[in-house]
From TrEMBL, chain A:
Pfam families: CcmE. Heme chaperone required for the biogenesis of c-type cytochromes. Transiently binds heme delivered by CcmC and transfers the heme to apo-cytochromes in a process facilitated by CcmF and CcmH. Keywords: Cell membrane, Cytochrome c-type biogenesis, Heme, Iron, Membrane, Metal-binding, Signal-anchor, Transmembrane, Transmembrane helix. Heme binds at H124, Y128. Residues 30-151 are extracellular. Belongs to the CcmE/CycJ family. Residues 1-8 are cytoplasmic. It is a single-pass type II membrane protein. It comes from the Bacteria. It is found in: Cell membrane; Membrane. PANTHER family: CYTOCHROME C-TYPE BIOGENESIS PROTEIN CCME HOMOLOG, MITOCHONDRIAL. This is Cytochrome c-type biogenesis protein CcmE.
Automatic annotation (TrEMBL), chain B:
This is Cytochrome c-type biogenesis protein CcmF. The gene is ccmF. The lineage of its organism: Bacteria, Pseudomonadati, Pseudomonadota, Gammaproteobacteria, Oceanospirillales. Residues 320-649 form the Cytochrome c-type biogenesis protein CcmF C-terminal domain. Residues 657-680 are annotated as: Disordered. The keyword Transmembrane applies. Belongs to the CcmF/CycK/Ccl1/NrfE/CcsA family. It is found in: Cell inner membrane. It comes from Salinicola rhizosphaerae.
Amino acid sequence: MRANRKRRLIIVLGLVALAAVAVGLTLYALRANINLFFTPSQIAAGEAPHDRTMRIGGVVKKDSVNRDSNSLQVTFVVTDFAKDVEVSYDDILPDLFREGQGVVIVGKLDDSNEFIAQQVLAKHDETYMPPEVAQALKATGNLPDGSVPSS
Amino acid sequence: MLIRILPELGHFALILALGMAMLQASVPLIGAATRRPLWMAFAQPMAWGQFAFLVIAYLCLTASFAFDDFSVAYVANNSNSMLPWYYKLSAVWGSHEGSVLLWVLILGGWSFAVSVFSRRLPRDMLARVLAVMGWISSGFLLFILLTSDPFTRVLPNVPGDGADLNPLLQDFGLIVHPPMLYMGYVGFSVVFAFAMAALLGGRLDAAWTRWARPWTNVAWAFLTVGIALGSWWAYYELGWGGWWFWDPVENASLLPWLAGTALIHSLAVTEKRGTFKNWTVLLAIFTFSLSLLGTFLVRSGVLTSVHAFANDPSRGTFILVLLGITVGLSLAIFALRAPRVQSLSGFGWLSRDSLLLINNILLVIMTVTVLLGTIYPLLLDALGLGKISVGPPYFNALFVPLTVLLCIFMGLGPLARWKRMPGRELARRLGLAAVIAIVIAAGLPLLYGGSFSLSVTLGLLLALWLTLSLVRDVFDKTRRGRTGKTGGRGRLARLRKLTLSYWGMVLGHLGLAVTIVGVVMVSHYNVEKNVRLSPGEQVEVGGYQFAMTDFHERRGPNYVADTATIRVDRPGRASFTMQPEKRFFMASGMPMTEVALRPGLFSDLYLALGEQLDNGDWSLRIQIKPFVRWLWLGALIMAAGGLLAVIDRRYRKAPKRAQAGARGAPDPIEDADMAAEGAR
């Protein structure tokens, strides 16, 4: 019985140690891989870090989409109607990407405050506004009527 | 005339179903507590009636879709007169209200199945199981009637035509993926109900696990297929060629799967050895709670994804409250009723018991890490601490090493004996398998890709380790001399003697090996190139020549498509053409990418049209995806394993015998089990 109890103690201690390691690793991995969200205004104010993956959101500014004539390189401006961010992207844009549409972009900010996009997300629903974008627009008082934020 | 009032009939049927669900939830429970047979017997007819009215309600909604009744708001928002009939029928679950109705319908179906197939259960047990399912059903029926009524009319200004089903959903995937996934999600309610009934009845021996095991396996198999279908659908529909994005919605389905996988293993231990009793009950509670959490995440609109429909917050709150009640109440019952006497039978450091314990611990850790990564952003957002997202690197960094660990122990598990296994014997039996696995895994990347790759070797090593250890086990189990016979025919006869549940385990584990091969190969040898192409031009990617030979417009039933014809050449092979499309849906005005696929067991060619560029060129996504089919093939094999274990004869014979010893120690059941296996 004593041996049994001792073994149980070892098992419990082992489990606790394992759990502690697991939690530690998880929190570390979580911290290293969190993508913060920034609005164009926050970027203009210098709140966003450089060379770290993050997400930005806003509306694609009218007449700002510019394509390179030889490659897939494309640049456009994302705005919250107070401040703008230049975005460049070297991939295929999603079906619902168009000017005047709300988008969320994953990527990094380079030294000249241009946003190098890795992924552009445009929701598959014309009346939909990504919640982050809706909030960003609300903050600048520019949420257009009729757009339905999802939250 | 009847057609005109179908929505009202459906609504009325839902109310009747709710009434029956409430009776099913309460009367049998009181009957079981006060030992009144008539009250207990109430459960079955109520379950049948409830299911019947749910079917009626469901058919009414389906009919409204089929007959284009746009006076029903849900139909007007999710259908269109031009929509092909098969999408009209599956558009029923294309959005929030209908998908919750499907959820409840399937729950009613499971309750019905339990009441039909479990007549051999002790009367009070069956009464309690059905009562618990009645509670769940009542909760969700209330949810439908109070917040998500699919039969609401838009009167008097009836729209002339519907707004159309989201083009993304107009696909074969919509027809199969949601029902399969829901069969899995909701199926876990059965094992949950069994666990609750066992707790309530104070009958927490191993008997309930024997009854619950087949149900759990079936639910797990459906969930496996559902997840695989979702991954396959995303692969060809979204146009990116990805098959798993660690999207919160995908995680929501993975969570109950991980917990459910742990559950089917711990159920096995409890049934066979009578240990892990409390743990199994807890896992049953958690698995179903994670199913509910998945429903909440997907249906509440807290997530930005293809699954989150524009939604009002009261719905999210309602499901969250349901989830809270379920978790809180079931844990409270567990705390009050769980047996305090620990099982006395111990086991050695190295034994099947200990290996299954490790399996459970690892799977639970995996569940927790995925759960954390999924809800952490939501928690921060709800607390107003900022908007963040957790990217795939987080999940990969944790999930991959944990899977490696899991697979190492998985190779050992099937060969280990219950209670105690000498390490030396295990090493002797598996040494050869390990050596062969290492040699092949190190060599294959050289042969396939031309250079050594550590990640590919590691992945293949795991897959081979799983496979070869199973081969070794089958070999040992059919070895000459075990039954005294000799000769090759003897081995075949012995092979036939292995039980179906054993083969189920073999297939389940092999399926994972196949999936791992798929994951490793497609992640490492994936070739991807985005190009500009105009008619007449050609481009070389991964040894293939892609030439755009033609470009034309085409009319579909409810869309217009720009179709590119691409000729693909490879030296020494016959050339063929592929036709990726960009579809423009007329009712909603939305564009959609229709991928062209050339599937193959060892490699897929994947072409997706991007957009038309200024000078008439088109952007084109070209991908070569080796072994991508193995991902889903493996999942299908796993599911087949789960189902095979269910048809094992002992489950059909067992209940009668188990009933006699239900209140006793687990030993009689174990004996009956042996007898059943011996009798074959």
